[in-house]
UniProtKB/TrEMBL annotation:
Name recorded for this polypeptide: Sm domain-containing protein
Similarity-based family: Belongs to the snRNP Sm proteins family.
Domain (Sm) ranges: 33-106
CDD domains: LSMD1
PANTHER family: N-ALPHA-ACETYLTRANSFERASE 38, NATC AUXILIARY SUBUNIT, SMALL NUCLEAR RIBONUCLEOPROTEIN-ASSOCIATED PROTEIN B AND N
Single GO cellular component term: NatC complex
Stored InterPro entries: LSM_dom_sf, LSMD1_Sm, Sm, Sm_dom_euk/arc, snRNP_SmB/NAA38-like
Lineage: Eukaryota, Metazoa, Ecdysozoa, Arthropoda, Hexapoda
Recorded GO MF terms: RNA binding
Length: 111
């Protein structure tokens, strides 16, 4: 790419800046309070205890109408103080969830 003038270079810089700006979408006003809460929890760390006693810790990615949840960058603990086993992305069936804790430190917002 060649530039014939300072104006061309300036325009190219503005275009590159626009491409690198994050796309932020405002929350729709018609969301229910529950859906707003779920949106606030996206990207926060969850600690999930499942029926067989395992503890899964990972970043909340999504859920569905059956209460299944997906955690990214998930680690599995067999005991409270045990060594973690890194799992990556994990889908946890809602029927196996005993409890969920949201990490308050991963965001400054109040729950």
């Amino acid at each position: 790419m060649s530039f014939s003038s300072v104006e061309d270079l300036s325009e190219a810089g503005k275009l590159a800046q626009r491409r690198s700006e994050p796309i932020v979408k405002a929350l729709p006003e018609n969301l229910t309070p529950g859906r707003r809460k779920l949106r606030c929890w996206l990207g926060r760390y969850f600690r999930v205890v499942i029926t067989d006693g395992r503890i899964l810790v990972g970043m909340f990615n999504c859920t569905d109408k059956d209460a299944n949840i997906v955690l990214a960058m998930c680690a599995e603990y067999l005991k409270e103080d045990g060594e973690p086993r890194i799992l990556g992305n994990v889908m946890i069936p809602g029927k196996h969830i005993v409890s969920i804790e949201v990490d308050k430190r991963s965001s400054d917002e109040d729950d």
